Inverse folding.
């Protein structure tokens, strides 16, 4: 991701012991996940946010199949509809879900959509 989006930097690999959602490896959930920051997200916008949260840049979640990735994206969109603080950009391509910070402009986030097209 960082090779294709110059403002992105890997911040972590999620494992069962540090997964804040406790979803890694569970039936129908992601089988792997990495998080990244984006230098276009201003530090003042994410003051107090935990490292590795989508707001700081984003995450890539991989699933066993495309239907699980789509279901996860729909779940996230449902939460965002009831609470705008959870709004984000979500791009599903195959079995991969790329989640991108709401603090990026649509044009900035579109760079990730382009990269996402090559995943999954």
């Amino acid at each position: 991701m960082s090779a294709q989006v110059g403002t992105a930097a890997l911040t972590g690999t999620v494992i069962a012991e540090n997964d804040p959602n406790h979803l890694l490896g569970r039936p129908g959930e992601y089988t792997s996940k990495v998080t990244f920051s984006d230098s276009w997200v201003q530090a003042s916008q994410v003051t107090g946010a935990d490292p590795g949260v989508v707001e700081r840049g984003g995450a890539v979640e991989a699933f066993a199949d495309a239907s699980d990735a789509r279901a996860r994206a729909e779940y996230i969109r449902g939460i965002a509809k009831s609470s705008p603080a959870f709004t984000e950009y979500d791009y599903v391509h195959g079995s991969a879900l790329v989640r991108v910070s709401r603090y990026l402009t649509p044009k900035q986030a579109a760079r990730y959509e382009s990269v996402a097209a090559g995943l999954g």
Summary: Residues 69 and 75 are 10 Å apart (CA to CA). The helical segments are 66-82, 106-116.
